[in-house]
Amino acid sequence: MANAHQNNPRKEVTYALVGVIGFLLLVLLIALSGYFRPGGQHVVSNESEDMQDTELGAESASNTDVKPLISVRDEPVETITVEAIESPKKVELGKMLWFDTRLSKSGTLSCNSCHDLAKGGTDNIPTSVGYNWAEGPINSPTVLNSRYSLAQFWDGRAKDLMEQAGGPIENPLEMASSHEFVVEVLNSIPEYKAFFHDAFASEGDINIDQVTSAIALFEDTLVTPNSRFDQWLGGDDEAITAQELNGYQLFKDSGCVACHNGPAVGGGSFQKFGVFEKYTTQNLAEGRYAVTGRDEDKHLFKVPTLRNIDLTYPYFHDGQVDSLADAVNIMGKIQLNREFTSEETADIVAFLKTLTGDQPQITLPKLPPSNENTPKPVPFEKS
Amino acid sequence: MANAHQNNPRKEVTYALVGVIGFLLLVLLIALSGYFRPGGQHVVSNESEDMQDTELGAESASNTDVKPLISVRDEPVETITVEAIESPKKVELGKMLWFDTRLSKSGTLSCNSCHDLAKGGTDNIPTSVGYNWAEGPINSPTVLNSRYSLAQFWDGRAKDLMEQAGGPIENPLEMASSHEFVVEVLNSIPEYKAFFHDAFASEGDINIDQVTSAIALFEDTLVTPNSRFDQWLGGDDEAITAQELNGYQLFKDSGCVACHNGPAVGGGSFQKFGVFEKYTTQNLAEGRYAVTGRDEDKHLFKVPTLRNIDLTYPYFHDGQVDSLADAVNIMGKIQLNREFTSEETADIVAFLKTLTGDQPQITLPKLPPSNENTPKPVPFEKS
Questions:
Q1: Which of A50, A109, A122, A133 to mutate to test the interface with B (most CBs of B within 10 A)?
Q2: Which of A52, A319, B195, B199 could cross-link with B89 by S-S, CB 3.0 to 4.6 Å?
């Protein structure tokens, strides 16, 4: 290295060449990394320690105290933006409904039964258990960061979280209740009525739109910022290891990022599952086809978020894959026609594990009791 | 009133008489109220705003900051004593286990499924739903204030909360797992192992005694102080209404308090259910007899706590009574041979509703994920 300071024309030319090539490579890299980026704009992200606390008492009024964090890296995977909660009373009400098993026929199942906020917003089994131990047809996706999805359910049949929230209540394989029963239950409970009147500045009976709207607004708050990867995106080079960074480069270079991008690292499009090879499964779900009826939509599924993927096993719409390494290998093979070496797989898995963010801090609600006017749950159907 | 200051001998005699009679009545009242009192000593009760928060982070170390509150009324119903948490790490671990559905065979049921802390520590259905939608044999009693019970379960077959905690895990009609399976699951998860090692100052594998001990210590914290009745016990005359006070007097005078006394207003003895009249039920439970095999123990049940009774419907060991008024009337008739007037019933019900205390403030735990070494749950048994 000491020789570099000596006057040697051949070496000078070499250095100049290396410099030019390096510059060109840098331009190429920036262009490539911008290629898959959906928006293109810099992401302005806000975070606040208190934001995740959905116990919305007096202190929650100060939700405007959000500290902006500018993402210094321009990447296809974007930092999660935590927004100030606009309707804390509706969110608090939504949290009560989220945990209230009276939304189900049996009186034993709540939203949280299948989207357990102690477990990454999932139930960690292939398909869920519903009324009378019914076996659900598809894996329950995580509720965390679901606000970033272009639509809800694996087949996108609900346009937003509010529309989604009404579904499981009436699904005979899930909560097996009806919207009529649910509003009758809620309207019979004076405390609930007062909460709804207060939150919605309304009078009279509670309606199902208010119920699903409150649940959706609560779900809107269930985001997981501040993962190690977000810290890295924010400029902290030490936040992830060399292996994890390598995994991220592979994730981009192999093309995973073409579908898994944006703040949720997924959720932004429907894609055919099984591009280069058919995905073998007993699961009968036909994906987007069930909604559109168009042949080309067969086995198109909403791209799942990869945020908190370490918590949201088992994987895929059929929940048939337990290991993240297996999931990565299958995706490489059937979606990208690529066989990862075991080292490559390990690197990608290491990167994926950096996507576990701060889990929402949830204080259990205190649900108001039923009374003699409240329709009773039917846990067991007597023949 | 101005006349009182005039010199009038007849009035002086009247005042003296009223004074003497008043004094005698006071003595009588004190004697009567002391009659049913089990202990006799003044109750020293501590309470602290933070005590009920079982999120045991750094701040929980300061649990010694408990303010003593001396009960100024000498009553058979005692104020709840909130004690400083001695083992915050074990309690936090117990809370994780309490909410961890991996303690069940299906991976979907946790302690909280049947003892829901959002609903007064119960499931509010007659008998619970277990593995494969099995119907439980008996009503799930509230976990709240269960630490005050002389034994656990309706028939008292577990001597304490630790012994109780092991039961539902293995009961095929409940979580349907095994202690072996549970410790295998927990031992496969490095985070759990580290938490156990830290909390129990232990090394090596987690064992089932540590599991049930942690759960029991968490349950120990689930007390509900500061009900309006406790405020009244503490000397606040305005805390309960004249009707509620009347209900309490009736509750004592009719003899309810003979069994429903102490800090939990129950839980202190086994009593025959159906003294003057047989209690008619389809429920096959034989109570204490199942434990002792002695004929005289047939249909003896542990006296349930009346704390938070407004939240813990439906009532009795068979969960067949939904209305508190009905429950009071039945108890009057079959236990005390007394027919309450509707006004008396209303007064007693009003009193009972003053027993709803501060519910535990529970922050959902963040459960560490399973991994490839973790035995998988079996939600559906394939034939």
A1: A133
A2: B199
Tokens found for residue B322: 């939904």
Place of tokens 């075991």: A342
Q: Can you tell me the ipTM of this complex?
A: 0.83
- Contacts of residue B104 in chain A, CB cutoff 8 Å? none
Give me the sign of the Cα torsion angle B371, B373, B374, B378.
positive
CA A21 to chain centroid, in Å, comes to: 40
- Rounded to a whole number, what is the distance in angstroms from the first to the last CA of chain A? 88
Q: Coil, helix or strand for A3? A: helix
Instruction: Report how many helices (DSSP H) and strands (DSSP E) chain A contains, helices first.
Output: 12, 4
Report H helices in chain A.
9-35, 88-99, 111-114, 161-170, 179-187, 190-200, 208-220, 228-233, 242-253, 289-292, 324-336, 342-353
Q: Number of C-alpha atoms within 13 angstroms, CB side, residue B175? A: 28
User: Per residue in A75-125, pLDDT tens?
Assistant: 999 999 888 899 999 999 999 999 999 999 999 999 999 999 999 999 999
**Please, what is the Cα angle at B127 between B221 and B292, to 5 degrees?**
75
3-state secondary structure of B245: helix
> Whole-angstrom Cα distance, residue B161 to residue B174?
17
- Contacts of residue A298, defined as CB under 8 A and 6 or more positions apart, other chains included, come to A286, A287, A288, A289
- What DSSP line would sit under B137-159, residue for residue? SS-----TTGGGSSSBSTT--BS
Q: How far apart are the first and last CA of chain B?
A: 89
Query: How confident is the model over B87-99, as pLDDT tens digits?
Result: 999 999 999 999 9
Q: Cis check for the bond before B314: say yes or no (omega within 30 of 0).
A: yes
CB-nearest partner of A323 from B101, B132, B372: B372
Of A106, A362, A369, the CB nearest to B364: A362
Q: Would you give the distance in Å from CA B110 to the centre of its chain?
A: 19
10 Å CB burial of residue B380 (0-12, 13-18, 19+) is middle
Residues 6 or more apart whose CB falls under 8 angstroms from that of A79 comprise A43, A45, A69, A71, A225, A230, A233, A234, A263
DSSP A37: -
